[in-house]
Structure prediction request, 514 residues.
Amino acid sequence: MEQVFESVKDIEKQIAGFISQDEKTAEAVMIENAAVALERYVLKACSKTKSRVTVLCGSGNNGADGYTLCRRLAGSCKVNVVKVKEPKSLHCISASDNLISVFQSTSSDINFYDLNLMQGSTSIEKIISKSDVVVDCIFGTGFHGAVDSDIQKLFEVVNNAKTYRIACDIPSGLDSTGENISSLSLEEKKKAVFAADRTVSMGAHKIGLFSDAAKDIAGKISVAAIGVSDSLFRLCAEKVSEKNKIYLLEKSDVKCPVRKEENVHKGKFGHICVMAGDKTGAAILSSSAGFKTGAGLASVVVSNNCDYEHFKIPASIMVSSEIPSTATAFVVGPGFGRNNDFEKIISELKIKDCADKAFVFDADSFYYKELIDFLIENSSEKNNCKIVLTPHPKEFANLLNLAGVGNFSVKQVCDNRLELSRKFCQKFPGIVLVLKGANPFITVNDTTFICNSGSNSLAKGGSGDVLSGVIASLLAQKYDAKDAAIHGVLMHALASRKVKENYSLTPELLIENL
Prediction:
């Protein structure tokens, strides 16, 4: 689990003091370290001796990283230095001038180009087409808005070339939240943003790299040290970002339910109960997933209007018209419908010693006002009731409206998922929110966990029903609400990666892969 930051500028100022008392010297050292990290990934990507590497350099310290990288690559690779923007920052000017003065007339391995002057035999298309690796050092994390037309043409050329692409710190053209490209198609993004195969984030993970909009253009994300150890970086971060509580979940963080005792019985592992509605198939998927991930018992509760007789229900799943007295974790919402008696369901659940139970609300439950009343009654951390909510952005937009947090569009939810998740969880302390998406955000109180391990194979009807059952199963097995959400999301995401062809994953196969 690694920390993620909304901004690292203040942290870098703290780090600078450990490197040198002179601010300019400290910045120069950090730039050198950034170039060292980039060099490592460039050389790793180069498959042959004297590979061709093209470095796109901007005007600020991101550009300085690029010019410094070119110096380090001299002799190892054939390097094309492309000035995309005129150097402006002190370090960018210095690194550019130094590179030109030393290598322009003395090395045949480095060629210098100015994007604004390139045409004919030195067109950018020809240079990129012959490059094994292209490195983006144009803009940094402070970028906002949209790139100009010349850079759009550059991105279109680079992103459609058969070359390995590395971004320095953050793909150029992407802002700190991903909001500026969130409404664009993938083809449109390829004109607006550098689409990286790998992003080397300097110092720490940045939140913008984990927006849904960045999923297609950030590639594999790595963190590079810029001059101090990880522990010292965290110390500096605590001084200026003590309220920053955002974490990236890793594969190694997952804790599956392991049965260590031999002398046990099914009751020890809980009983999940899924409340069925209009579409009984969703409830069957949810209960089957819960049973697969360790619950001792799994039931589907049906009403008179359920069509469960038309489904082949697994023999391991019990069907009942009433809530089982032994049930310990409930799933409400999958396939429930929007015209059923939700109030009756909530009333029945309240009677079942709610303070000792656990609940997962999903799907259609987010369209009923009665859910908000239930959350208000049970949102105190002093209450032993464990509640996890698993909406997708459209459902969350409706939930925010019902809860009185505000009226937001789906796009606004996607663009501001961290801020809106925090607002909701401040209003309902202790309740765990899993905001689904390309990178699910799990928030409780003021802490957010991000999972970027999932595959696009999950974009199938029923995947969310499986997730609700997995989380409920962990709740039934005595995980607390936060851990059930974290480990349930991770198990779900990693299971999606096991399918050979990403189009072929079905909910049933996803359950099998858990």
Remarks:
- The two ends are 21 Å apart (CA to CA).
- The longest helix spans residues 23-45.
